[in-house]
Amino acid sequence: MNNRIINILRQGKPEEKVKIQGWVRTKRELKEFTFIEVSDGSSLANLQVILNQDLPDYNNVIKKLSTGASLAVEGVLVESPAKGQKIELHAQTITIYGECDGKDYPLQKKRHSLEFLRTIAHLRGRTNTLGAVMRVRNACAQAVHQFFQEKGFLWVHTPIITASDCEGAGELFTVTNFNLDNIPRNDQGKTDYTEDFFGKKAYLTVSGQLEAEIMAMSFENVYTFGPTFRAENSNTSRHLAEFWMIEPEMAFCDLEGDQNLAQEFLKYVFKYVLDHCPEDMEFFNLRINNTVLANAENIINNEFARITYTEAINLLEKCDRTFQFPVEWGIDLQSEHERYLAEEYFKKPVIVTNYPKDIKAFYMRLNEDQKTVAAMDILAPNIGEIIGGSQREERYDILESRIKEMNIDPQELWWYLDLRRYGTVPHAGFGLGFERLVQFMTGIDNIRDVIPFPRTPMNAEF
Ligand code: ATP
Ligand code: MG
Ligand code: MG
Ligand code: MG
């Protein structure tokens, strides 16, 4: 049988011979024998291993098996008399790969704060919480691909180094081929970064959307799932400088179809994770936030709320809350507004549509009122925005004048405009921050705790 602990715990039968490998989580020495719990990261539950006195070199082996030590155990499964587990492993041979000095080991046998664990990101995967996060994250990623593949979407790989600033928000990291010795300088000796990538401009991508649109104009339905970068000098609990984004783009689709797909997608991913990681989800409900399971059921079973931006502003103006950032038509919704709507007013995700054109990117389709665009944001309880999407402007003349209005040089987007000259079609899409999805699913407050290697201005270890 497969030697991962999760499979042994689920399917192992008494008298089966198995070999496992992993790390000691706890050790309990009794007179006659010793119990150790071993984890290999495959499941929340550890496998209990019993070491008897008759094991070769018993005393020496026991001494070396402190928390954190790595080992292989070969032995026979036996029925467990202990509550809560069916099976345990009777050790016949033990191989120790690496000892672990119990006094030094940062992961002591107690509950550590997530803040502390961030300082030891190289070891925190061995804790229950980060272990559960990484398994749920993996299941989410699997669900993302399965959802789109079942629907016949093509997974497209958009560039990470790109020439376009898709969002126009000035949050770009510049890519350069200079080393410290050959940074070009102007006449005054100041650094001159105007042409950085072998004489051309290049940035780390902030979104694969524009390139995904290109692909949708040949393949109808496509999606991206890859890393994105934003020079966010903000230290909020929902912003990273490097995060993963999922961006479907659909030809022959309008804003309504876009909202429907986003809702169906979120329901699918929640259901998939509940089905595949039930123990981890229960753990989050018990230890992190006691609304995790109710929230998942709520997502799966209910329609999301849908309102326009103008209705959202009316609701916010009428409510009895005072916000730090004053509410009036035309503002970009702040996280306090978004959270009020999702958490307190609707108590479920809410899709807000038709935002003022001045606060949104140039590519969103202009509505007939000439003031708003066919945008949609999905706001989630505890987080705020998790999805931003829109129907794209497919009309050449209007797109060109919007580009000029935003002071972008149409020359830079000649290929984007070209797509509107040669067989343009209505199309729409959205972007979902993968870490925000994992946050939403697990109830974890801080985005730094749902990505293996968080990069923010404060966290730059890796
Ligand atoms: P916010 O208002 O929170 O700054 P945004 O409107 O700037 O987000 P978009 O440009 O709409 O973000 O990007 C699409 C999605 O990508 C967002 O809905 C969010 O889920 C995610 N996202 C954006 N910026 C970040 C970030 N810095 N870290 C993690 N996820 C992000
Ligand atoms: Mg932003
Ligand atoms: Mg936003
Ligand atoms: Mg947005």
Describe what you observe in this structure:
Belongs to the class-II aminoacyl-tRNA synthetase family. The protein is built from 13 helices and 15 strands. By secondary structure, the protein is α+β, with helices and mostly antiparallel strands. The chain has two domains: 5-105, Nucleic acid-binding proteins (OB fold (Dihydrolipoamide Acetyltransferase, E2P)); 125-171 and 206-449, 2-Layer Sandwich (BirA Bifunctional Protein, domain 2). The longest helix has 23 residues, at 128-150. It is elongated. The structure holds adenosine-5'-triphosphate and magnesium ion (MG) (3 copies). The site of adenosine-5'-triphosphate has 17 residues, from strand 10, strand 14, strand 15 and helix 13.
